[in-house]
């Protein structure tokens, strides 16, 4: 977050709190429960895979910090990282489509990627996620202020 250099520390703290409250409210509006996530997956399967990808379960998990999602085709289970919550809908939809495609094609070979081409925002979503990963790798200097 960029903050004008002329702000006092008290003004900065007040502004940061206001922005954090806004972000929290926005995230809570966006966050889906597991039932809504499963319904979203069913809708996406119908739209992009002719309903052929039928997950038995779709849920958020908090133990995936290096992956955005995972799928166990033999069980029909899809898990999405809680880190996706609050990201744009097209990004969450991409990860869901990616995992849905694994129900039809387990690996990441050419057949898998051809199947995933059905989702029109694949490249944009992948770029977004790559940007998130790159930003997470940037050094963090505690107490530093952007001027």
From TrEMBL:
InterPro entries, A to Z: UTP_pyrophosphatase-like (IPR053136), YgjP-like_metallopeptidase (IPR002725)
Record carries keyword Ribosomal protein: no
Source organism superkingdom: Bacteria
Domain YgjP-like metallopeptidase: 54-129
Pfam families, alphabetized: YgjP-like
Keywords of this entry: Hydrolase
GO MF annotation list: hydrolase activity
Signal peptide: none
Name the record gives this protein: Metal-dependent hydrolase
Taxonomy of the source species: Bacteria, Bacillati, Actinomycetota, Actinomycetes, Kitasatosporales
